[in-house]
Design a protein that fits this description.
The complex is a heterodimer of chains A (937) and B (140).
Chain A (H helix, E strand, L loop, with lengths): L6 H22 L3 H17 L4 H4 L4 E8 L4 E7 L1 H24 L6 H20 L3 H19 L6 H32 L4 H6 L1 H6 L3 H15 L8 H4 L5 H10 L1 H11 L1 H4 L3 H23 L4 H22 L2 H32 L15 H15 L5 H16 L8 H25 L16 H19 L1 H4 L1 H12 L16 H18 L1 H10 L5 H23 L4 H21 L16 H19 L4 H21 L3 H22 L12 H26 L7 H12 L4 H9 L1 H22 L23 H24 L7 H19 L1 H7 L4 H21 L9 E6 L3 E6 L1 H37 L1
Antiparallel strand pairs in A: 1-2, 3-4
Chain B lengths: L1 H19 L4 H21 L21 H32 L10 H4 L15 H12 L1
The chains are: A mainly alpha (937), B mainly alpha (140).
C-alpha cells in the first residue's frame, strides 16, 4: 500500500486518538500521559515524513474522500509548502512543549486531562493547515477554539482562568462563524469549496460583487484568532493558562492560525486596495498598540502577550503590503517569531516555577542563580529585539525595507517607515526590560524560596529553540532558506521572487532604521521610571470591562425579549404558538391567487356515513364543551376514537382500524386509571376574555383545518406508493403492503418509533416509581366507590377469555405480513388481554401467575429488532433488509417466512412491554393508595 | 364525502385546540389526544378516500388504497398513545408534587374554593411526609 495515498488524514486524526490514550495512560502512571503524547507526536511526524520531499519538488499532495459531495463537502487534505511549514512548526514545537510541560506541571495537576487537551488541540491545528476543503478547514478552526478554551481554563479553580477562557471562546468562536460565512461566499463565487479551485480563481473573486463582504467576514475570523486590533484584548487574558499552553497556543501556533488564513488565501484575496487598507491598517495599529502596551506590563507573561500581539500585527502588516517580497518577509517572520517567542514563554515559565512570581518588580539578579537560563533568555530576547546575527534581525530588516518601498505610494505612506521604526524601538525597549528587570540588578529577598536552575531536561526545549534562533540568524542561507522558499511557493502558488537572506546589505535605509531602533530602545529603557509614572497617571481603557458590559447587555436584552413572550405560563405560551401558526397559515394563503378548492369532483356520500361522521364531529365538540365534567368528557372522546376506527374500515384501511380500535381501548383504560387520582371536575373558569380568545383560536384553527383538507382533497395527486405496491411481493415477500412498508421498506423508521415507545414506557415507569397520591373516597356526588374491587363475573370471564385473546394476538401477528395485522396490532391485542387480567383480578393475583418482567420484554424486543437488521448487514445487505423464502407446512399450507417477521416480533414485544408496564405501574399506584382502606374494610 | 371528512377533521381540530388551551392537565391531555386524531385522519386522507378497495396485493383487483399514508398513520397512532400515556403520568406527577392539577403548577385558590375534594394548597402542608402521616391517621 502506498502511504502517500492516505497519510495526511492519519497525521491529523492520530492526535485525537492519542488524546484518549493519554487520558487513559495517566491513570496507570503520572507521567504516562506525557510519554504517550510525545510518542503520538513523533508518530504523526513520522507519518508526515514520506510526503515532506514533495513540496520541495513543487508538488502538491492532495488526498480526497467523498463526504457530502452534493454540498461540495469533501474529506480532503492538502500538503504544499505552506501547509508543510505550519505542520512542521506545530509538530516540532508541540514536541518541545510536551517535553517542557512534563516538568512544568506540578504533582497536583491532572496530567491526563492536560495532555489529552493538548493533543486534541494539536490535531485540530494540523487539521486547519492540512485541509483542502475550506468547510473542513472551518470545522477544525472551531475545534481549535474549543480545545483552547479547555486549555486556558485548565486550572478551573481560578476565576481569571475561567473568565479568560470564556472571553477567548466568545471572541474566537464568533470569529469562526464569520469565517464560515466568508468561506461559503468564497465557495459560492468559485463554485467549489476545494482550495485548489479557489486559489486558482483569484481574478474571478476579486472582480466579484461579493468580494468585499467575503473579505470582511474572512478578516473578522483572522483578526479575532490572531488577536488583531480591535479584537486583541482576549490574548492577555488567555495568559491565565499554564505556561506551556501560552508558549504553544498563544505564541507559536493558534494565534498564527489567522495569519495562516492570510497566507493561504493570499493568491485569492490580496492585491486590492480594500485588502491593503483593512489588513495593513489593522496590522499597523496592532503592531504599535501591542509594542507600546508591552513596555508597561510588569507581568512577564503580560509583556510577552502584548509583544506577541505586536509581532502578529507586524506579520499582518507585511501581508497587507500585498507584494510578493512582503509575503516572503511575513512567512520568514512567522518562523522566527515562533522560535524566539516560544522559548521566551518557556523562560517565563521557568522563572515562575523557580521563584513563585512573574512580577518584574519583585524579580531581579536571577543571573546569579540561574546563569544558563539567563543566557538563553538573553539570546531569545535579543532575537525579539532584532539584534544582528539573530533571526529576528533578518525579518525585521525585511519589514523596514518593505516599509521604505511602500512609503513612495503617497504622502501619508511616508509616515510608514517612521511608525515601524517606532514599533521597532519599543520592541527593543521591552526586550531589554524583560532581561534587565528579571536577571540583572539587585536580587530581591522577598521571594518564597531561593531560586536555582530548573531540571536539566526542562531547559532542553529552550536550548534547541535558541540554537535555531542563532543558526538562522548567522547562516540563513544554509538553514532556513530551502523551507522558506518552499513555503513561499506554497503561499504565492507561483514562482518564488528573488530575495536575499544575507546579513549584510550595505549601509541602506533599513540598517539605519535598525540602528535608530536599537539606540532609541535602550535610551527609552533607561528613562523607563519616568515613563511608568506618566503611564500610570492616565486612565487606560480596560477592554475586559467593555466586553463584560456588552455581554451583560446582550444577555439582558435576550432576557427582556424572552420575558415578553414567556410569562412562565403554559397557557400563554400555547396560545402564542397557535396564534402565530394561524397567522403564518393565513399570510401564506393570502398570497395565493388560484381558487382554494381544486377541480376534482367530490365523491357522493350515503346517509349512514353522514350520520356516523356527524356523530364523530359532535362527539369531538361535546368533549370540549363538557370538559369540566371529566368522566363524561372521557366517555365522549371514546366515541370519537370509535368513529375514526369505523372510518378506517370504510376507507379500505383495515390495519389502521384494528390499531385504532385496540389503542382506543388501552387509552381509555389508561385515562380512567389516571382520572381516579385527579380532580373529578375542572373548576369554573372566571376569565371570560380568555375563554372567548381560546374559542376564537379554536374556531379559526378548525376552519383552517377544514379548508386545508378540502383544498387538498379536491386536487389530483401523484402517489409514490406505486413503487411499494409493485415491490411488496417480489421485494418484501408479503402481500400486506402496509406491513411490508413498516417492517421492510421503512423498517428503520419503525425501529425509531419502537425506541420512542420503549422510552415512553420506561419514562412512565420511573416517573411513577415511589409516587404516592391520595385516592378519593367517594366520587363527585359523594357516593362511595364500589367496595367490590374485583367483581366475580368479570374475573371468571376474563380468565376464560385470556387464552382466546392471546391466540387472536398470535394469529394476527403471524398473518400480518400477508393480511391485515402485524406486530403493532398483535402487541396491542396482547396488551389488552393482559391488562384486563390485572384489572379484573388485581395486581397481586396476576403477578404471581404471570412472572414476566416487562422491562425484559422491552429490552428483548429492541435487541431482536436491531439484531435482525445487523444480521442482514453482516450478510452484505443494507441495515434491515428483509430476506424471505416460501415454506410449506402441513395443515397451515404454503406461506412465506420473511426475516421481517423477526423484526415484527421485536415490535410486538416492545409494544406489549411498554403498554403493560405503563398501565400496571399506574394500577399499582391505585393499589398502594387503597392498601389502607382495604385493610380497614 | 370529502366535505364530510374535512368537517370532521375541523371539528376535532377546533375542540383539540380549545382543550389544549385550558388550564388543567386532564383537559389538555384530552385536547392533545383529539389533535392527534385530527392529524392522523388528515394524514390518512392525504392518500385520498378510497371506498371498497382491497387492502392486500390481489392481482384480480384493479386498484389499491394508498398504503404509504396508512403505514405512517399506523405508527403515528401508536406513538400518539405513548405520548398520551406519558403526558397523563406527567400530570399525575405534577399533581403529586405541586398539590394541584394546574398546567403552570400554580394554585388558583379562587377557582379551587368551589371544589371540596381537592388538596389544600402546598403552603398549608408542612411536608409530604407529614401529609402522608395525616392520611394514615385519617385512614384509621
Amino acid at each position: 500500500m502506498n502511504l502517500l495515498a492516505f497519510n495526511l488524514p492519519l497525521v491529523v486524526l492520530l492526535p485525537f486518538v492519542g488524546a484518549a490514550f493519554a487520558a487513559w495512560a495517566s491513570r496507570l502512571n503520572r507521567l504516562g500521559a506525557a510519554y504517550t503524547s510525545g510518542l503520538v507526536t513523533l508518530l504523526s511526524l513520522a507519518l508526515l515524513m514520506p510526503s515532506v520531499p514533495l513540496p520541495f519538488h513543487d508538488q502538491t499532495l492532495i488526498q480526497t474522500w467523498d463526504w457530502v459531495p452534493d454540498l461540495g463537502l469533501y474529506f480532503s487534505f492538502r500538503l504544499d509548502g505552506l501547509a508543510l511549514l505550519f505542520a512542521l512548526l506545530i509538530l516540532v514545537i508541540g514536541l518541545l512543549v510536551i517535553f517542557y510541560a512534563r516538568y512544568y506541571l506540578s504533582a497536583k495537576d491532572c496530567m491526563g486531562r492536560f495532555f489529552a487537551y493538548l493533543l486534541m488541540f494539536m490535531g485540530s491545528m494540523l487539521g486547519i493547515v492540512l485541509s483542502e476543503n475550506v468547510i473542513q478547514l472551518v470545522i477544525f478552526w472551531e475545534l481549535t477554539s474549543i480545545t483552547s478554551f479547555l486549555l486556558i481554563s485548565y486550572w478551573q479553580h481560578r476565576k481569571e482562568a475561567r473568565q479568560g477562557a470564556r472571553m477567548a471562546l466568545a471572541i474566537t468562536g464568533a470569529g469562526g462563524l464569520a469565517l464560515l460565512g466568508g468561506m461559503i461566499l468564497l465557495g459560492e463565487m468559485v463554485g467549489s469549496y476545494q482550495l485548489t479551485h479557489i486559489l486558482a480563481a483569484g481574478d474571478l473573486i476579486r472582480a466579484h460583487d461579493w468580494y468585499l463582504p467575503a473579505l470582511i467576514l474572512i478578516l473578522l475570523g483572522v483578526f479575532t484568532k490572531s488577536a488583531q486590533f480591535p479584537f486583541h484584548f482576549w490574548l492577555p487574558h488567555a495568559m491565565a493558562a499554564p505556561t506551556p499552553v501560552s508558549a504553544y497556543l498563544h505564541s507559536a501556533t493558534m494565534v498564527k492560525a489567522g495569519i495562516f488564513i492570510l497566507a493561504r488565501f493570499f493568491p485569492a484575496l490580496s492585491g486590492t486596495i480594500e485588502w491593503t487598507l483593512l489588513v495593513g491598517g489593522a496590522g499597523l495599529i496592532t503592531l504599535l498598540i501591542g509594542a507600546y502596551t508591552a513596555l508597561f506590563k510588569h507581568d512577564l507573561k503580560g509583556l510577552l502577550a502584548y509583544s506577541t500581539i505586536s509581532h502578529l500585527g507586524l506579520i499582518t502588516l507585511l501581508f497587507g503590503f500585498g507584494t510578493q517580497l512582503a509575503a516572503v518577509a511575513a512567512i520568514f517572520h512567522i518562523i522566527n517569531h515562533a522560535t524566539f517567542k516560544a522559548s521566551l514563554f518557556m523562560v517565563a515559565g521557568i522563572v515562575d516555577h523557580e521563584t513563585g512570581t512573574r512580577d518584574m518588580r519583585r524579580l531581579g539578579g536571577l543571573i546569579h542563580y540561574m546563569p544558563h537560563t539567563a543566557t538563553l533568555a538573553m539570546v531569545a530576547a535579543a532575537a525579539m529585539a532584532g539584534v544582528p546575527l539573530l533571526n529576528g534581525f533578518l525579518s525585521k530588516e525585511m519589514l523596514f525595507d518593505q516599509a521604505v518601498i511602500a512609503s513612495s505610494i503617497s504622502h501619508w505612506a511616508l509616515l510608514l517607515p517612521v511608525l515601524v521604526t517606532i514599533a521597532g524601538l519599543l520592541s527593543v525597549a521591552y526586550s531589554v526590560r524583560f532581561i534587565m528587570d528579571t536577571f540583572f540588578g539587585q536580587p530581591k529577598s522577598d521571594l518564597l524560596h531561593t531560586p536555582h536552575e530548573p531540571p536539566r531536561f526542562m531547559k532542553i526545549p529552550v536550548d534547541i529553540l535558541v540554537v535555531v534562533c542563532l543558526a538562522v540568524g548567522i547562516l540563513p542561507a544554509l538553514t532556513v532558506s530551502p523551507i522558506l522558499e518552499t513555503a513561499v511557493a506554497g503561499t504565492l502558488q507561483a514562482e518564488v521572487p528573488d530575495f536575499s537572506l544575507a546579513i549584510w546589505h550595505g549601509f541602506n535605509a533599513p540598517l539605519m532604521m535598525s540602528i535608530a531602533a536599537l539606540i532609541g530602545g535602550v535610551a527609552l529603557f533607561l528613562k523607563r521610571d519616568t515613563l511608568f509614572q506618566l503611564y500610570q497617571r492616565h486612565e487606560h481603557v480596560d477592554a475586559k470591562r467593555y466586553f463584560q458590559a456588552s455581554l451583560q447587555g446582550i444577555l439582558n436584552l435576550a432576557q427582556t425579549v424572552t420575558q415578553r413572550f414567556d410569562k412562565g405560563s403554559l397557557q400563554h405560551a400555547s396560545a402564542w404558538v397557535i396564534a402565530v401558526s394561524l397567522a403564518a397559515g393565513i399570510v401564506g394563503f393570502a398570497g395565493f391567487n388560484g381558487s382554494l378548492l381544486g377541480e376534482t369532483p367530490v365523491q357522493s356520500v350515503d346517509t349512514l356515513t353522514v350520520i356516523v361522521g356527524l356523530l364523530g364531529a359532535l362527539a369531538a365538540l361535546m368533549t370540549a364543551i363538557w370538559h369540566r365534567k371529566r368522566f363524561v368528557s372521557l366517555v365522549v372522546i371514546g366515541v370519537v376514537g370509535l368513529v375514526i376506527a369505523i372510518g378506517f374500515v370504510k376507507f379500505s384501511a383495515p390495519d389502521l382500524a384494528l390499531t385504532q380500535l385496540s389503542v382506543e381501548v388501552v387509552t381509555i383504560v389508561l385515562l380512567l386509571l389516571a382520572l381516579y387520582f385527579l380532580p373529578q371536575a375542572s373548576p369554573k373558569e372566571i376569565n371570560r376574555v380568555r375563554l372567548w380568545r381560546d374559542a376564537l383560536l379554536a374556531g379559526v384553527s378548525g376552519i383552517g383545518a377544514t379548508l386545508l383538507t378540502l383544498s387538498v382533497l379536491t386536487r389530483d395527486f401523484d402517489s409514490i406508493s406505486t413503487y411499494f405496491l409493485e415491490n411488496s411481493v417480489p421485494g418484501g415477500g408479503g402481500t400486506n403492503v402496509v406491513n411490508v412498508i413498516l417492517v421492510d421498506f421503512r423498517g428503520f423508521d419503525t425501529l425509531g418509533e419502537i425506541v420512542v415507545l420503549a422510552l415512553a414506557g420506561l419514562g412512565i415507569y420511573s416517573l411513577l416509581q415511589g409516587m404516592t397520591l391520595p385516592a378519593p373516597k367517594n366520587d363527585l356526588r359523594g357516593r362511595l366507590w364500589n367496595p367490590d374491587k374485583h367483581p366475580l363475573i368479570l374475573q371468571t370471564l376474563t380468565r376464560l377469555l385470556l387464552p382466546l385473546m392471546l391466540m387472536v394476538a398470535v394469529f394476527v401477528f403471524l398473518r400480518g405480513h400477508n393480511l391485515p395485522g402485524g406486530g403493532f396490532i398483535a402487541g396491542l391485542i396482547a396488551s389488552v388481554a393482559l391488562i384486563v387480567q390485572y384489572l379484573a383480578n388485581g395486581i397481586d393475583w396476576t403477578r404471581t401467575r404471570l412472572q414476566i418482567d416487562m422491562h425484559w420484554a422491552i429490552g428483548l424486543g429492541l435487541l431482536i429488532a436491531i439484531a435482525t437488521g445487523l444480521v442482514m448487514m453482516a450478510m452484505g445487505y443494507p441495515f434491515l433488509t428483509s430476506a424471505f423464502r416460501h415454506m410449506h407446512w402441513p395443515v397451515v399450507g404454503e406461506f412465506e417466512l420473511a426475516s421481517a417477521i423477526a423484526f415484527d416480533l421485536g415490535v410486538f414485544l416492545v409494544v406489549v412491554g411498554a403498554t403493560v408496564l405503563s398501565l400496571v405501574q399506574l394500577g399499582r399506584l391505585s393499589h398502594s393508595s387503597h392498601a389502607g382502606s382495604t385493610w380497614k374494610s | 364525502m370529502e366535505i364530510l371528512i374535512a368537517f370532521v377533521i375541523g371539528a376535532m381540530t377546533a375542540s383539540g385546540v380549545f382543550l389544549t388551551l385550558r388550564g388543567r392537565t386532564f383537559p389538555v391531555v384530552l385536547g392533545l389526544t383529539l389533535l392527534a386524531y385530527a392529524v392522523n385522519v388528515f394524514l390518512f386522507a392525504m392518500g385520498r378516500l378510497t371506498v371498497g378497495l382491497p387492502a392486500v396485493i390481489d392481482p384480480t383487483q384493479g386498484g389499491y388504497a394508498d398504503p404509504l399514508p396508512q403505514a405512517l398513520v399506523l405508527t403515528a397512532i401508536v406513538i400518539a398513545f405513548g405520548m398520551t400515556a406519558f403526558l397523563i403520568v406527567l400530570a399525575l406527577k405534577a399533581r403529586a408534587e405541586m398539590g394541584n392539577d394546574h398546567v403552570d403548577g400554580l394554585h388558583l385558590s379562587e377557582d379551587e374554593a368551589s371544589l371540596k375534594n381537592t388538596l389544600p394548597p402546598r403552603s398549608q402542608r408542612a411536608s409530604r411526609k407529614a401529609r402522608h402521616a395525616d392520611q394514615q391517621e385519617a385512614g384509621q
